[in-house]
Structures are given as structure tokens and as C-alpha cells.
Amino acid sequence: MRLIIVRHFKTRSNALGRILGWGDSPPAHDWEKDLIFVDRTLRDQGIEVDAIYSSDLERAQRTAEYYAKYRNTATLGHSGQLNEVNYGTLYHKSKAWVIENVQEYKTDPGYVFPEGESFLQMQARSVQFVTKLGVHSDSNTVLLVIHAGVIRGLVCHLLGLDYTSNLKRKISHKYIGDFLIEGSRCIRYNELGKPSGFVKQGIVSPSSSESMPMTDVDIALT
Description:
- This protein is α/β, with parallel strands linked by helices.
- It has 7 helices and 6 strands.
- Helices cover 32% and strands 16% of the residues.
- The protein has a 6-stranded mixed β-sheet, with helices on both faces.
- The longest helix is centred in the middle third of the chain and has 18 residues, at 119-136.
- It is globular and about 45 Å long.
- The two termini are 32 Å apart.
């Protein structure tokens, strides 16, 4: 399976540096610019998509619908397993305030946000979705429209990277992750759009074959 992963359009809350999680926000004034870039890049690369999946959140679903509109896509679906981490009571607080007042934010992946969940719990459910997807989409190219936190979790799992030290890697709205999944392994990773913090900071090299097996994960959300 070839797995293309992109981020949703930029929202007003993204532009203002506010926490979203399971909440939503209207598009930023220049929201379409990033989507045009991603769509054009996929076309220039000759990538034909067999299916598009997004999270249940509006910003991801609307982005998926944008890409589906210009493609003859066989499947368009969404799943709560691909949702961003649930930040609970931190919703819509400024990231600057959270960094100053919540020591565990992006330092402890096991920390459960009040009335929310942990990064590890979010990673577990998204990995489970991708694992099951690989079983049913062996020879297909699938586009996932998801969130920065989910992308970090999947990159760390699929490439065998330490999760704790990579919670702060930058993921642009122009990010395009290109994963080749063979059986239960990611055998190739590339970035076709704006380089992520993983590449810019030398954590991984594009076209790297270093990976770990995908496995089913027991999920215990609280």
C-alpha cells in the first residue's frame, strides 16, 4: 500500500496559535493556498489516489472533500480513530499559555489531558486504523487527511523513532508524507511537500528504509 499523508487546511485557531484538538475552527483567510500546493504536487508526481480517508473533525473532512472533488476517487470515508489528540479542557487556550502552565504538554506522551486523552492513546488508535487499512488496501494508494499530532505519532511508529523526543517536530500545512507499506512494514518514506521538522532537523532522511513492523495496538481510552 502506498500511503500519502497530508494535513488539513489552516484554520483561524492555527493562525492564532490556539489549541484545537477535538474542537474546530473556521478556515484561515488563506486556507486554500496550501491545498492548491498539495493538490498540484500530487498531480505533478503522477499520484493517482484510490481512496481518501480523514478524521471525523470538520477541518479534515472538508479538506478531504476538496481533494475528492477533483479526483475520481472510489472511496471517501472518515474515522474518529484519526482525530487529533483530545486536549480536553485546554481547548482554545493559547499554546503560549499551555507551554507555560502545563509542564507535560509535548514532553510526556503518557500524560492524560484533563477530560481528554494522552498522545500515546491518540497514537494507538491511529496506528490501529492504518494497520487495518493496510490489510484491506494492499495494492492501493490511499490518501489520509489528518492532523499534526496524528502525523507525528504515525511517523514515529512507522519509522521506529522515539516518540517522546519527537513530540515537537514541525508539520506544515504543506506537508506530504509518502509511505510505502509492504506487509507489516514501512519500507520507504519520503516527503514531497514542505519538509517537516523530522527532515529539517536530520531525524530522518527522505527515502529512508529504516522502519519498524506495524502491529495491532490495545487501546484503553479514558
